[in-house]
Amino acid sequence: MKVSPDSHISPRRPLAAEVLQVLRQDLQAGKWIDRLPSERVLSDLLQVSRPVLRSALAVLEREQVIRRVPGKCTIVLRRPRALMALRKVKIVRILFSNPIHTESPSILYTIGELRRRLLDVKHELEIQVDARLNGPDPSNVLKKLVRQNQTACWMLHSASEAVQRWFSAQQLPAIVVGSRYPGIDLPALDLDRAAIGQHAAGLLKRFKHQRIALLLRSPPWAGVRLLETGFHAAAPPPMGSIVRHNGTVDGVCSVLDNLLRKPERPTGLLVAGAFDLLTTMGYLMHTQRRIPEDISVVCVDVDKLLAHVYPPVARYTMDWELYARKLSRLILQTTSVATTPSQQHLMWPDFENGQTVGVAPDF
Fold first, then answer.
1. 3.30.565.10, 1.10.10.10, 2.40.440.10, 3.30.70.420: which CATH number matches 1-86?
2. Cβ atoms within 10 Å of 217's Cβ, excluding its own
3. Which stretches of the chain are assigned E, i.e. beta strand?
4. Are 129 and 96 in contact (CB under 8 A)?
5. CA 328 to CA 322: how far, in whole Å?
6. 11, exposed or middle or buried, with CB in 10 Å at 0-12, 13-18, 19+?
7. d(CA 106, CA 360)
8. For burial by CB atoms within 10 Å, which of 112, 163, 203, 234 has the most?
9. Separation CA 92–CA 152 (nearest Å)
10. Which band of pLDDT confidence, cut at 50, 70 and 90, is reported for residue 43?
11. Interval 277-323: pLDDT, tens
12. Residue 334 · residue 343 · CB < 8 Å
């Protein structure tokens, strides 16, 4: 649950009373300007059931702090500013379109490290998850989010092109956590995806691989498109081929099944994403394909999870503490000045050889 630093849900007090305390503090802090988020969003944020939430909201309504309009919204009637003026806390809000538990361990580590750093300078990091941001036109959802949440800086994590373009057009204080789409006028921080794709394909070429496949989730986001560009720079078709899957275990296994049945099957695989790498390794072992004697595998992503894979996989690594430090610095620049240069900041990761790359086999 995302609450003020000095608030938490305690098992020693009635849950509704704890929720009421948290809502009061957030209203006093000016977190919501004129309306509360929907009951669904609030219950997700506070990690409580709707009946518990409604009990707390009923108290606030009796106190004439809010007014609930059935089937529409909850209006904020009074927003005391005293606490906000005392604390001078700036709210930084990171947007996710997918459930937070589906994110990689490295992203979760970065959020924790970033939250710690921002609290030291009176910035509070909040997480906002809304699947509707994946839609073709999220403008109405974004308008409502911005109207209801007082935010000094928006962080757009793996955001769609439509989300990035909306924030860029509105000229709101926002940064892209990842790669930007063409024409986006926002500051951004990401790995050099094009360089990774080119380096990984070049590595397999040095080991005599003439047929290399890059496994990617569909649809491609901005960073993946850059990865594709770098990959084809080193391994243009027909040497290099791109294979897309739907991100499920069955989807990965299905495309691998079709790919490796071909007479001209690849001898080297580049896999984007730690979870998809685990599925790929498991599939190859299950089908009795030796790594790297029969096929070489490289993960073209960075994730702490990969350090626990055996045999050690050829992969990219980075200093996640440095990444969080750079990200916090970019946030502070955005919240402290009127305009922040819309530069794409790139970081180059290190490469770990592992034991999954070998000389291409002869068929």
1. 1.10.10.10
2. 18
3. 35-36, 66-69, 73-76, 90-96, 123-129, 153-157, 174-177, 188-191, 212-217, 240-245, 268-271, 296-302, 314-317, 344-347, 350-352
4. yes
5. 10
6. exposed
7. 32
8. 163
9. 6
10. confident
11. 999 999 999 999 999 999 999 999 998 889 999 999 999 999 999 99
12. no
pLDDT at 357: 97
Give the whole-angstrom CA distance, residue 148 versus residue 36. 6
Q: Tokens 């005599």 sit at which residue?
A: 208
Cα–Cα distance for residue pair 291/39, rounded to 1 Å: 50
Closest C-alpha among 221, 279, 285, 270 to residue 251: 279
Q: State both tokens at 332.
A: 């502070």
Give the length of the chain. Answer: 363
- Domain residue extents for the chain: 1-86, 193-315
Q: What is the pLDDT of residues 137-166, one digit of tens each?
A: 999 999 999 988 889 999 999 899 999 999
pLDDT tens digits, one per residue of 222-255: 999 999 999 999 999 999 999 999 999 999 999 9
Helices (H) and strands (E) in the chain, counts: 12, 15
Q: Which of 155, 99, 111, 94 shows the shortest CA–CA distance to 323?
A: 111
pLDDT tens digits for range 174-205: 999 999 999 999 999 999 999 999 999 999 99
Looking at residue 57, its amino acid is L
3-class DSSP state of 304: helix
- Angle (nearest 5°) at CA 100 between 11 and 104: 120
Which letter does DSSP use for residue 271 in this model? E
- Dihedral sign from CA coordinates of 51, 53, 59, 65: negative
According to DSSP, residue 137 is labeled: -
DSSP state of 165: H
Query: Which residues face 190 on adjacent strands?
Result: 346
Separation of alpha carbons 228 and 225, rounded Å: 5
Radius of gyration of the chain (CA): 24
Q: What is the pTM of this model?
A: 0.75
